[in-house]
Amino acid sequence: MVSITAPTPPAPPPRAKSGVVRWAKILGRELTTVAITIFGLLLVTFLIARVMPIDPVLAVVGDRAPADVYDKARLALGLDKPYWQQFAVYIGKVFTGDLGTSVLTAQKVTDDIKTVFPATLELATLGTLIGVALGVPLGILAAVNQGRWIDQVARVIGLIGYSIPVFWLGLMGLLLFYAKLGWVAGPGRLSIAYQDFVTPMTGIVMLDAAMQGEWEAFVDAFWHLILPASVLGLLSVAYISRMTRSFMITELQQQYVVAARVKGLSEWRVVCGHALGNALVPLVTVIALSYMHLLEGSVLTETIFAWPGLGRYLTNALLNADMNAVLGGTLVVGAVFIAVNLFSDILGRLADPRAR
């Protein structure tokens, strides 16, 4: 009697296994880096709160509070415990979304940040889009036409963007385009006539106005946004165009570019299809860095244009010794830095087959 055995299923290809293991190692390494960075961010903000010459108890009870009230508030805040216990409590509160209460607004810092952060996000996003739309083509043209007039123009724009103080540029923009020419709207996010037209949903006025069909308010919000975003966009153009030019010059000197030209490929395909493709990986990192810089470096722009964003909120909190608001805003900015940096790393790996 002949026994028939069922065929054993084929084993998965070793290449697929190695790919899964490799990506698992990459993911584990990235998550470990993020966890260490977040822990360091929490530790730094905690130490800043303890080193600053500002008494958090006095910020709550006032300078003229009796001694017994001061002692009770100090116990309620947990400042009588050792530093390691205070740090543990601080970490627990942060991970539960409790960033404390703002002395200036008498509201939870989390609620305040939810209100002001979309304004900064809207401003920095448009500024970065302007920087990418103008800076990348300008950098490519400057690299292809190295030493010619377009290259000189790119250098001058970069010099202006790096040299002119942003507060002076904002003031001159308001004076020329708003006060003299009347091409744009003034400070703020929305004119008084349209304040009640848009119900806050996402916190981004233009998006909320479009979702609700309030197109007049949408146009008004755009004319308020375009000037401060252009001021930030000039800084982004200067940085992105300079780095794009540098990356493209390096790639255009490589042997594969010479080989592509010898094969008879058009200059357009050589520059945009080959050189730009290889320069894309570091360029993604540059754009991410520019975006993060605009998110945290728009304090002066928001102050000049009366833009109710995170930078202005942190400035007012710092001037009024509102440490809960300052530290909460710092944590949010740091978390955004980490998230954008991680996202740019992932995009870099997807864009570069060698990284994959």
Question: Your description of this structure?
Answer:
This is Peptide/nickel transport system permease protein. Residues 117-344 form the ABC transmembrane type-1 domain. The protein is globular, with a radius of gyration of 26 Å. It is mainly α and 356 residues long. 30% of the residues are buried. Helix content is 73%, strand content 0%. It has helices at 14-51, 56-61, 67-76, 83-95, 109-144, 149-163, 166-180, 205-211, 215-252, 255-262, 267-296, 299-304, 310-319, 323-351. The longest helix has 38 residues, at 14-51. It has two domains: 31-95, no CATH class; 109-351, Orthogonal Bundle (MetI-like fold).
Please sum up the structure shown:
By secondary structure, the chain is mainly α. 73% of the residues lie in helices and 0% in strands.
What string gives the helices and strands in order?
HHHHHHHHHHHHHH
Uncertain stretches: none
Q: What shape does the CA trace take?
A: globular
CATH class of the largest domain: Mainly Alpha
Distance between the termini: 53 Å
Main pleated-sheet profile = none
Family: Belongs to the binding-protein-dependent transport system permease family.
InterPro entries: BPD_transp_1_N (IPR045621), MetI-like (IPR000515), MetI-like_sf (IPR035906)
Domain ABC transmembrane type-1: 117-344
Subcellular location: Cell membrane
Note the topology.
Blueprint: H1 14-51, H2 56-61, H3 67-76, H4 83-95, H5 109-144, H6 149-163, H7 166-180, H8 205-211, H9 215-252, H10 255-262, H11 267-296, H12 299-304, H13 310-319, H14 323-351
Helix pairs in contact: 1-14, 5-6, 5-9, 5-11, 5-14, 6-9, 7-9, 8-9, 9-11, 10-11, 11-14, 13-14
Domain ABC transmembrane type-1: 117-344
Keywords: Cell membrane, Membrane, Transmembrane, Transmembrane helix, Transport
Subcellular location: Cell membrane
